[in-house]
Amino acid sequence: MAEPKGFNVKKQHGFTTIAVLCFLLLYTPIILLVLYSFNAGTSIAIWEGFSWRWYISTWGNEQVKEAALLSLWLAIVSSAVATSVAVLAALATTRRAPYKGQTVVFAIINQPLMVPEIVTAVALLIFFALIKNYTGYTGGAYLFIAHSAFCVPFAYMPIRARLQGMDLTLEQAASDLYGTPLRVFRKVTLPLLWPGILAGAMLAFVISLDDVVITEFVKAAGQDTLPTYMLGQLRRVVTPEVNAISTVLLAISVTMVIVYFILNQRKN
Amino acid sequence: MANATHRPSFTERHSQWVLLAPALTLLCVAAFGPLFIVAIYSFLTPGDYGGVVWKFSTEAWFNVFAERDIFDETIGFADAHLAIFWRSLRLALITTVVAFLFGFPTAYFIATRPAHQRNLWMLLIMVPFWTNLLIRTFAIMELIRNEGVVNTLLMGLGIINEPIQMLYTDFAIMVGMLYVYLPLMVLPIYASLERFDFSLVEAGYDLYANRLKVLRKVILPVTRPGIVAGSILVLIPALGAYVTPRVLGGGKRMMLGNLIELQFGQGRNWPLGAALAMLLLLIVMATMVFYVRAAGREGGGHG
């Protein structure tokens, strides 16, 4: 009875204000960045009217086109590779009794999440320099291998989560009905696992598309992805062209994350 | 017949490693394995034009903390390195504390929304996190430049006459790291607050506690595992930050990540770079061990 009517036990003074501030802090910079990519002038602070000018000039920039193409290729190939190996690894590590070497397997799979990116980047720089010395090969394969590797844990997480929530009995029933292991996998496991695979592939795609540090250390001279191209532009005068590239990349990431969110919602 | 009955267990045991092989091979080649090479390189002699000479030396590890005077061979602290370590540690810690001050109330706000709204609020936290780190850093840079929105606005309002130099300062790096790592603080705190039983709070009020006391004596202790996890998730990438100090610190305000890169670029001292990278890895691992201990203790303590 001590509490007056309407007393809200969950209320804490000032928390809502801080939360609102927090959301403002998170979104204001991004929104301004997108806004000024449509600025008619060269300023990133004074609005001079709406225009597609920076998108058009970016579209005409050969370097940007090349970088965009490499970024896209890298993201497609490495997310495909990472997702494939992650599906197999998830099948091997979930829904089973604890096994010998479990901790080591998890440590290896999650290495890219636990070790600071700069350390992995340096490690790859050294390792690939050794290989270059012995083989003389200096092509683009290094980037593809590096990207595929650090995308694995991001693809693995949602697939593993999906598998853990799946009932083994369906597959056992299919086996009992004389389905071969491959057929059971194709007809039962895979369709059920599909949302997890899609989510994993999308996360891997976004992670590859956004990577700066490892790419910066592994790439050969002249090989640029969109993020490393933008980082290189820093030394020059920053024009809203960078904003235009950023806006396109943002649009891709945000779309992917929202689709991922919807996929996850449906699961629940 | 004997074969037929043995087969399942045999394949079950072995197919696991067959399925794991591609992932483990890929990661051992291009993530886990090369770390050992870094460890080896930290004990070699630098080559004249980058790279290494295969001769054992502890000089790199010595140079991490100390330096020899080139004239009289006296040994002193490597002040430049120590200043960078100190900046890394200080900025990472400040970022973590400020992220907590913003992140906890935000996570609390989300956890106290009606159940069907919470996922949407969390999506709002996660969307910036999954967007490009470099782009978010650029966004901060454009905001706080001398000719950026903040300075233009303040000058337009007549509050200041000269733009305030915010870019290329420690403050800029801190704001940038806070901005990019904040979602990592909110996420685990929200996870522990979502499971939080608010009847405990009611009990607190019944015992005549005020709001602050309930927060300090009930809510904070129960959600401590989430707070520790969030702090670790912010602290670790902040310690190893490379892009944010490079963009917002303008090359002069270096952190450990930039110092490491320097050794592979202009510095041409790969063993020193390798030793610094190993040092960072050791710090991160020590932090994680601390976290596992703290989380483990929590299970027995407050329950």
- Largest sheet data of chain B: 2 strands, antiparallel
Task: Describe the oligomeric state of these chains in a short phrase.
Answer: heterodimer
Average pLDDT of chain B, rounded to a whole number, is 85
- Structural class call of chain A reads mainly alpha
Q: Count of helices of chain B? A: 14
Q: In the residues of chain B, how many domains can be counted?
A: 1
* Poorly predicted residue ranges of chain A: none
> Gyration radius of chain B, to the nearest Å?
25 Å
Structure, explained:
The complex is a heterodimer of chains A (268) and B (303). With 268 residues, chain A is an all-alpha fold. Chain A has 2 domains: 10-51, no CATH class; 61-267, Orthogonal Bundle (MetI-like fold), CATH 1.10.3720.10. Chain A contains 12 helices and no strands. In chain A, helix 2 packs across helix 12 (240-267) and helix 9 packs antiparallel against helix 12. The longest helix of chain A is centred in the first third of the chain and has 32 residues, at 62-93. The model of chain A has no long low-confidence stretch (mean pLDDT 86). Chain B is mainly alpha-helical. Chain B has one domain (83-301): MetI-like (MetI-like fold, Orthogonal Bundle). Chain B is 73% helix and 3% strand. Chain B contains 14 helices and 4 strands. Chain B has helices at 2-32, 34-41, 59-65, 79-111, 115-129, 133-144, 149-156, 170-194, 199-206, 211-222, 224-239, 243-248, 256-264, 270-301; strands spanning 45-46, 52-53, 66-68, 75-77. Chain B has a two-stranded antiparallel ribbon. In chain B, strand 1 (45-46) and strand 2 (52-53) form a beta hairpin. In chain B, helix 3 packs across helix 14 (270-301), helix 9 (199-206) runs antiparallel to helix 10 and helix 13 (256-264) runs antiparallel to helix 14. Chains A and B meet through helix 1, helix 3, helix 4, helix 5 and helix 6 of A and helix 1, helix 2, helix 4, helix 5 and helix 6 of B. Chain B: Its main location: membrane. Chain B: Residues 85-291 form the ABC transmembrane type-1 domain. Chain B: It comes from Roseovarius nubinhibens (strain ATCC BAA-591 / DSM 15170 / ISM). Chain B: It is found in: Cell membrane. Chain B: This is Spermidine/putrescine ABC transporter, permease protein.
